[in-house]
């Protein structure tokens, strides 16, 4: 499996195909994706590219890191793996859903104050 590259500082108008085209100048691209906000659909300004070989990935880092696109300098480096739940510093996301009325003291106080 080839190296996965992190690409930061992308202009918000760049899409997956433009990112693929940029990196295909260096070598064959296995995948390219710009990360977007799940609610608005707007780009978050970063993405990931997977080159078909490690040599092409290293060449892409050397060639494209610091390149200016639409007035913005992009950062290209090797992506870090996602943390696993077994990792020592892993912090799971907290769920803030549920009955929010109960978050202000215990239920007995809420009943005495007439909140329920």
UniProtKB/TrEMBL annotation:
Region annotation (Disordered) ranges: 64-116
Chain intervals with Basic and acidic residues compositional bias: 69-87, 96-105
Keyword RNA-binding attributed: yes
Domain of life (superkingdom): Bacteria
Alphabetical list of InterPro entries matching this protein: Nucleotide-bd_a/b_plait_sf, RBD_domain_sf, RRM2_NsCP33-like, RRM_dom, SLIRP/GR-RBP-like
Entry keywords, A to Z: RNA-binding
An annotated Gene Ontology molecular function: RNA binding
All residue ranges annotated as the RRM domain in the record: 3-81
PANTHER family named in the record: HETEROGENEOUS NUCLEAR RIBONUCLEOPROTEIN 87F-RELATED
Name of the protein this chain belongs to: RRM domain-containing protein
Species of origin: Candidatus Woesebacteria bacterium RIFCSPHIGHO2_01_FULL_38_26b
């Amino acid at each position: 499996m080839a190296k996965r590259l992190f690409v930061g500082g992308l202009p918000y108008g760049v899409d997956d195909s433009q990112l693929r085209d940029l990196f295909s100048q260096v070598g064959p691209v296995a995948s390219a994706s710009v990360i977007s906000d799940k609610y608005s659909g707007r780009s978050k300004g970063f993405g990931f590219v997977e080159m078909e070989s490690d040599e092409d990935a290293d060449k892409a880092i050397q060639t494209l890191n610091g390149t200016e696109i639409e007035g913005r300098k992009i950062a290209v480096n090797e992506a870090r793996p996602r943390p696993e739940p077994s990792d020592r510093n892993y912090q799971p996301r907290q769920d803030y859903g549920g009955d929010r009325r109960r978050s202000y003291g215990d239920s007995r106080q809420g009943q005495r104050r007439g909140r329920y």
